[in-house]
Amino acid sequence: MAIYKTQKGKLLQRSPPRSSIVIILTATITCIAFFYLASSFFSSKGFSFSTIKTNLQSSNSKNHRGSEKYLYWGNKIDCPGKHCESCAGLGHQESSLRCALEEAIFLQRTFVMPSRMCINPIHNQKGILHQSSDASSEERWAASFCAMDSLYDLDLISETVPVILDNSKQWHQVLSTSMKLGSRGIANVQGVSRDDLRSKSSYSNILLLNRTASPLSWFMECRDRNNHSAIILSYSFLPLIAAQKLRNAAEKIKALLGDYDAIHVRRGDILKTRKDRFGIDRTLHPHLDRDTRPEFILCRIAKWVPPERTLFIASNERTPGFFAPLASRYKLAYSSNYSSILDPVVESNYQLFMVERLIMMGAKTFIRTYKEDDNDLSLTDDPKKNTKEWQIPVYKMDTGEC
Ligand SMILES: *[C@@H]1O[C@H](CO)[C@@H](O)[C@H](O)[C@H]1NC(C)=O
Ligand SMILES: *[C@@H]1O[C@H](CO)[C@@H](O)[C@H](O)[C@H]1NC(C)=O
Ligand SMILES: *[C@@H]1O[C@H](CO)[C@@H](O)[C@H](O)[C@H]1NC(C)=O
Questions:
Q1: pLDDT digits (tens, 9 = 90+) for 325-339
Q2: Do 217 and 92 touch, CB atoms closer than 8 A?
Q3: Based on the domain organization, do 22 and 118 belong to the same domain?
Q4: For residues 3 and 164, what is the distance between their CA atoms, to the nearest angstrom?
Q5: Is the CB of residue 79 below 6 angstroms from any atom belonging to ligand 1?
Q6: Are residues 18 and 156 in the same domain?
Q7: Protein residue with least CA distance to atom 12, ligand 2
Q8: What is the distance, to the nearest Å, from the Cα of residue 174 to the centroid of all Cα atoms in its chain?
């Protein structure tokens, strides 16, 4: 869609040349905006004064929805602090992004997306894709962030809710125009209710609403919405709208898998224990370690997955051969089986997980780690939600269980 394509500058170049005075004036104003917002919004890449232009009309005529007003929530999702070390995992950031997109739909505005998604290093180990024989050599992807458009297909998102990136030329134009418009250009609206933002003309007529959300969790903005029928975007909206090359990779792998089932086995960081004052290990998910071990999985999924089926396993477990006992009944497949397809497109764990998620969504029977919906099949009965109750892990299997 055009609003995203403007980033490539095609529309901008077509514009008629303006008088040099206007260009200098525009450049000056933009310079001020530039330094005022020095806080890393702008990658100076592709930023050239010769292409600055404030005629939003031409780009908006390309926007099917005709949404010429903008909503800005900040330049990082769920990342307090300056760097990416403290940011939330993909799942949280994605929920938060969905919340922001819903807000843009509600307000009928174009959403200004952060151009980057932070990656917390603890979520960026390579072990999953390249099963090395030495589990202690934890190779990581170097990136501490990835480009938003390497994860999602922004053209496709824009068909539902128009978005632009905060490093695009159009965003620069919006900022410089908002400066010129003065009080009608930009409003900082922290704490103003969404209904007021939509209906009061003092907000609804403003070009750019700066609703900078909590850096800790954008999703806080949605959490207190008690009207569930107001939820506009489904949970699968963003997973399904993965970037084209990730969707292509998933399609290729799905074709090779043929008729398959899938399990998502979350271990890793969620197994963490801490010692109580008597030195005894405690955990927030008392059965999870047991329930995600192959012996228990075999027993648990027997009623859902018949023998000889192809079972695709997505997991953050690093121990080589950890799931091998499942091979006694199933034909096992991991993303590491398809590294020739994945290596050329996957540069971070987030991208890998997005591909794995598409594969899991295509399974005939899919078993999650935790039950999230009433109809879900799950490996454990422990609740996903953090209960805040530290309990002693259980390893014994009850008689009659599973
Ligand atoms: C939006 O508001 C935040 C917080 O008030 C501020 O730091 C930021 O500079 C503003 N951004 C724009 C584009 O005005
Ligand atoms: C809940 O949201 C729906 C859809 O936005 C709306 O039609 C309905 O009136 C709302 N109900 C309440 C009680 O606010
Ligand atoms: C995947 O690789 C494992 C070895 O790592 C092998 O045992 C298994 O048969 C492979 N699965 C497929 C579907 O090729």
A1: 999 999 999 999 999
A2: yes
A3: yes
A4: 6
A5: no
A6: yes
A7: 227
A8: 25
